[in-house]
Amino acid sequence: MPSLASSNSSAGRAGSPPGVYKYVILEVSDKIGRHFWQNPGVPLDAEDWDKLPDRFGFEPAREAEWRDLLAALRRAVDTELSPRQRQVFVALVVNAVPLDALVIELSSNRNAIYKTMFDARRKLRAALAANGYMGQDTAGRS
Predict the structure, then answer these.
(1) pTM passes above 0.70
(2) Using CA atoms, how far apart are residues 2 and 7, in angstroms rounded to an integer?
(3) Which of 14, 16, 32, 58 could staple 4 via S-S, CB 3.0–4.6 A?
(4) Which residues contact 79 (CB under 8 A, 6 or more apart)?
(5) DSSP letter string, 64-114
């Protein structure tokens, strides 16, 4: 583990609280990402759409509605998203893969993953709105 004192910049000095916080955050996120991929709970290629209702707290009394919405969402994911957008969306939303673990697995960075999700959400909202699942006023919002 690198020493805090080895950094020459003022932001990384051991006595500088922002440097310490930054160092700890980066080290912890790196270790969490590595730990996840050493013992992954969910493979990236497995999709578990059936767990979404529980994760989002859909009411059992409205099961027919949310099943219809989830079917439409799944169709939109399969038809509207690029392969990369689909991979990121399924990993983060459907399989609940931690963001930092996905960044490491895809050899990417957080900003690229955020942008990919932003674009995917925009496409999905537009597709759902076009098919009557959302109000048209929410289709342009991301």
Answers:
(1) no
(2) 9
(3) 14
(4) 127
(5) HHHHHHHHHHHHHHHHHS-HHHHHHHIIIIIS---HHHHHHHTT--HHHHH
